[in-house]
Amino acid sequence: MSAEEEKSEQEVPEEETNDLREPLWAVIAFDGPIAKGLTYDEAIGKIGEFSEDEKPGLCVVTNEVAERMKKT
């Protein structure tokens, strides 16, 4: 792959990254939401705060999906 091809693969159009910068994201675990109202980068950072033993099944979803989860 040429350097030009690599560069174009790494560039994401601005309109595709807008949602990632909005506080639309949440972090959930098997037992319910951990945090809501985060940017995507903040959500990834929040996952890094926990070990797999502390909170298994962590993933990033939209706030809407997190609202549907029942906290036990």
Key structural traits:
43% helix, 4 helices, 72 residues, alpha+beta, globular
Question: What does this 3D model show about the protein?
Answer:
This protein is α+β, with helices and mostly antiparallel strands and 72 residues long. The chain has one domain (18-68). It has four helices and three strands; from the N terminus they run H-H-E-E-H-E-H. A hairpin with a 2-residue loop joins strand 1 (25-29) and strand 2 (32-38). The mean pLDDT is 84.
Write the layout of secondary structure elements.
Blueprint: H1 3-10, H2 14-21, E1 25-29, E2 32-38, H3 40-48, E3 59-62, H4 63-68
Number of strands: 3
Give the termini separation: 49 Å
Residue ranges: pLDDT <50 for 5 or more in a row? none
Structural class: alpha+beta
Helicity level: 40-55%
> What is the strand content?
15-25%
